[in-house]
User: Fold this.
Amino acid sequence: MPLINWYLQTAIQFKKKLAAEFREQLAQTIPTNQQEATLRRLAQQLREKKVIVKLFLRTPLHAKLYLLFRDDKFTPVIGYLGSSNLTYAGLSGQGELNVDVIEGDACQKLAAWFEARWQDRWCLDISAQIIEIIEQSWARDELIPPYHIYLKMAYHLSQEARAGLNEFTVPREFGNKLFDYQAAAVRLAARHLNQRGGAKIFENVYRLETLIICPKNLVDMWKSGYCDKYLKMATVLSVTMVKKLAELKRYQLVIIDESHNLRNRDGQRYKAIRDYIDRNDCKVVLLSATPYNKTYLDLANQLNATFVKGNHKGLPLRRTAFYVGATTRDCPYANGIEPINYGYLFQKIKNSV
Assistant:
C-alpha cells in the first residue's frame, strides 16, 4: 500500500510539472492571432471531448504512432509510424521519416498496443488542466480587465523594491529622523548596494529650490508651518506680490496654493505667473480643494497657466501635478492627497484651453 501511494504521489507531481511547463511556455510565447485562435479551438474541443490528452507515466515513452479509423471495409484502420512529433515542424518542416501501415493484422496489433497504454492506470487524463491553463492565459475567451494588467505590471516592476523592503532595515541610529518614504529609499538602496555594488539616492522635491505662491493670509503658515520643517530651500511669495516675479531668480519647483484663484487668464497676476513659469521652465504643483467654481473652464485656466505656450494640440511638455482635496493645512506631500494625472486632465479640457 505505501508503495502504491508513492507511485500515486509521483504521478501527481509529474502531472503538475507538465502543467507548469505548458503554462510557462504560453507565458513566454509572443502571441499571434493565429495562435490565439488555435488555442481557443483546442480548449473548445477538449471541453466537448472531441480531443482527449493523456500523460503516460508507467515507463518512458518515445514512440510516435498515428492511427486513423474510418468507415471503409477494405482498410478500416491506417497507421503511420515514424519519427515525426505531432507538431507543425514535425509534420511538415523537418527531415522526418515515416511509413504507412495498411495491412489489417498489423494495424490491429498497433491499435491493441495503443489501447493497452491508453487504458493503463498510470496514463492520466490531463485535458482539464490544459483547459484551465488556456482559460487563464492570454488566449482566454474572456478579455482580461485592464486593471488586472496594471496590477500585474506593478507587481513585477516593484518586485525588486519589495525585496529591498523585506530584506533590509534602517539602522536604529536614525530613530524617527527619516520619513517613511526616505526610510524606504534607504532600504531599497541597500539592496542595490548589495546586489550591484553601488547605489544613488536621488534628491526629491523637498530639496529643490522651491517657490511657493499663496494667498497673503497663508504666507505665515507656509513659512512657519512647513518651510522650516520640510522645505528648507523654499521662498514664500504672496499672490498679491507676483509683480516681483520678474526680479526673482529661477526656482526649480513652483507650488501654487489655492490655485483655483487663477481662473481669470486675462488678469495681471495670472499673466505674471504664467510668464515666470514659461521663462524658467519650472516644475509645477497646483494645490486646491476646489479645482473649479462654476465650470470646468476654471480648471482649464489653472492648467493653462502651467502649460508651455503653443502646445495645445497634444499633451503638455511641462509636467504638472494637480493635488485635489488638499487644504492649506495639509502638507502638499502628506498621505491622502491624490494627484490627478495631468495628461488625463489635459485631454478632457484641451478644447477649452
Remarks:
- Confidence is low (pLDDT under 50) at residues 310-353.
- Residues 220 and 236 are 9 Å apart (CA to CA).
- The longest strand covers residues 77-82.
